[in-house]
């Protein structure tokens, strides 16, 4: 696990930002902000904000337990909190259950809150990233044992942000996947949507021949702006993605 932590968590670290971690139960965020905007008060504020959002979601799941377990789009109760509405809406577009969007949604809601305090913000949650940047950024790609791992990166321009960059894998990590992709990376202005579509696209990949099929599926979802699918020695890409050496 230490190897995986070093591999994916450092791939998005930026030298001009201060990165810090906040862990509340299952929510484990790596947060990058401009150096002059970092303070212990910011860390405490983020911790309290995450606790508040988690409390809303946990209280809702208590009343609607199927929200947590279903693997298909879910009809919400009328008074569902905003975070559940966001997750369910993204999952509906992707054809998966709401929890497929949970990591990306937390990255997004925290990112949108923190961006009011820092012009540059990168929030990473289990390989799912919310990014708002005033300068070009490079995000490395980890794809397990694929030869592409640690060799390529995404170049992101400021006008693409705010942007969600979400990764699903059937061979790396603990997230549920019915596929065998080494990495499915989805780009979308909505980090929630990018997370849900990454899961759905990843489910389609059983062998190297499936990478184009998964990319074509991602391209068909309204709101998705880019996709990369990696399995072994095969890579397929579509949309607003610029792949550069890492």
Short description, anyone?
It is built from seven helices and eleven strands. It is α+β, with helices and mostly antiparallel strands and 246 residues long.
Structure explained in plain terms:
InterPro entries: ApbE-like_sf (IPR003374), UPF0280 (IPR007183). The structure is a single chain. By secondary structure, this protein is of the alpha+beta class. It has one domain (2-245): T-fold. 34% of the residues lie in helices and 25% in strands. It has helices at 2-9, 40-63, 66-69, 82-94, 102-114, 191-203, 211-219, and strands at residues 17-24, 27-34, 121-125, 128-132, 137-140, 152-156, 163-168, 183-188, 226-231, 234-239, 243-245. The chain has an 8-stranded antiparallel β-sheet. A hairpin with a 2-residue loop joins strand 1 and strand 2. It is globular, with a radius of gyration of 17 Å. It starts with a helix and ends with a strand. The relative contact order is 0.13. The model is unreliable at 1-6 (pLDDT under 50).
Q: Indicate the low-confidence ranges by residue numbers.
A: 1-6
| Cα radius of gyration in angstroms | 17 Å
- The CATH topology is T-fold
User: What coarse outline follows from CA principal-axis ratios?
Assistant: globular
**Portion of residues within helices:** 25-40%
CATH superfamily: ApbE-like domains
Mean pLDDT rating: 91
The total domain count is: 1
CATH class division: Alpha Beta
Kindly report how far apart the N and C termini lie: 22 Å
State the strand order across the main sheet: 1-2-3-4-7-8-9-10
* Strand runs, count: 11
Order of helices and strands: HEEHHHHEEEEEEHHEEE
- What is the second-level CATH architecture? Roll
> Which percent range describes the beta-strand content?
25-35%
Main sheet overview:
8 strands, antiparallel
Helical element count? 7
Helix/strand class: alpha+beta
